[in-house]
Structures are given as C-alpha cells and as structure tokens.
Write a sequence for this structure.
C-alpha cells in the first residue's frame, strides 16, 4: 500500500517539478533568446541610422525594424517577469513607430517628387515637422532596446549583463558600427523648396 501511495505522489511530484520549475525556465530562456536576438538586430539598425544622420546629415527613410520574433513568441511573453515584459513591449512600440515614420517619409518623398509649387512646399513642411520628433523617438527607441537587452541577459545567459547601464551598451554598439560603405535612401527636408 505504501508503494502504491508513494508511486502516485512520486509521479505527481515529478510532473509538478517539470511543469512548475523546469518547463517555465526552458520556455523563458527560449523566449528571451528570440527577443534578445531580434531587439539586438533592431538596435543595430537604429544605431546605424543615427550614426548616418550624425555623420552625413541625412535621415534614413528605408529604416525597417523587425517584429517577426516578437510576433512568434507573443503568446508566451507571460513566462517572463513583468518588468522585462514592460521593457520589451516599450521597445517594440518604439520600433513600430520608427517603421511607420519611415513608411510615411517614403510615401511623402514620392508625392513630393511628383508635385510642384504650393503642394510641394506643403509636403516639405509636413516632412520637416515630422523630423522634429524623429531624434526624440530614435533616442527613446535606442534606450528602450538597450534596457530590454540588459534585462533579458540574466535569463538568456544565466549571468548579469556585461554592461551596467544602457548608455554603456549603446556606446559599445556605436563603436562597432561602420557606415563608411553604407548606401542609404535619405530624406532631404529642404529638397525641392
């Protein structure tokens, strides 16, 4: 009888340990890795766009940021701690906004090239007005992405992040960014005026 009872509860204990401890840890690591890779790639794209703007004075209108990884693991985000979910969601909202800005600028550049006179001046004014918020949006996206990567590091790597602050991490990424041979499709705010 004792063997029967211990067998029932022993099996239950193994399943419980698997479902409560081991499986969530594996899932957290998998979700964290997907997000870390994609946020890192997006961060590199944003840093590149910022360096291009600072060195060449041109804003990239071909900046497209990925969210395929986020969409793939979105239903499993709840396995992450809530403060990490907050950082990740904030980063992706900013990525989405930057991508939308890029899409609008591409449309406006095409429209501006096809118009003349007053309509062209109005489009130029619209583009110039949207550029005002671009730097702030880009800085916010960079900071959010760096925070998210630093927050994911202990989950993915089982150790604290190598960088203590988002600023240190961004400085490292910027130091690794090379734009000497980069071809960009820039927006020129005063073109055609």
């Amino acid at each position: 009888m004792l063997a029967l009872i211990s067998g029932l509860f022993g099996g239950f204990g193994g399943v419980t340990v698997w479902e409560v401890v081991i499986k969530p840890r594996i899932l957290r690591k998998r979700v964290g890795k997907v997000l870390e890779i994609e946020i890192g790639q997006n961060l590199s794209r944003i840093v590149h766009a910022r360096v291009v703007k600072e060195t060449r004075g041109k804003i990239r209108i071909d900046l497209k940021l990925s969210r395929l990884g986020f969409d793939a693991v979105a239903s499993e985000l709840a396995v992450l701690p809530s403060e990490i979910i907050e950082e990740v969601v904030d980063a992706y909202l900013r990525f989405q906004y930057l991508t939308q800005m890029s899409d609008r600028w591409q449309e406006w550049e095409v429209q501006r090239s096809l118009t003349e006179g007053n309509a062209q001046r109005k489009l130029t004014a619209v583009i110039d007005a949207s550029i005002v918020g671009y730097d702030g949006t880009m800085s916010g996206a960079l900071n959010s992405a760096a925070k998210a990567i630093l927050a994911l590091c202990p989950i993915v790597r089982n150790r604290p992040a190598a960088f203590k602050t988002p600023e240190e991490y961004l400085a490292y990424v910027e130091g690794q960014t090379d734009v000497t041979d980069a071809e960009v499709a820039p927006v020129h705010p005063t073109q055609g005026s």
Residues 2-187 form one domain. The longest strand covers residues 59-60. The longest helix spans residues 2-56.
